[in-house]
Amino acid sequence: WGWTDPISNNEYALMCTNKGVTFIDITDPANAIILGTLKTRTGNSLWRDVKIYKSVAYIVSEAENHGMQTFNLEKLRDVKNPPETFTSDTDYTAFGSAHNIVINNNSGFAYAVGTKTFSGGPHFVDLTNPLNPVEAGGYAQDSYSHDAQVVTYKGPDTDYTNKEILIGSNENEVVIVNVTDKNNPIKIAAITYPNIGYTHQGWFTEDFRYF
Question: How far apart are CA 93 and CA 115, in angstroms?
Answer without folding.
Answer: 11
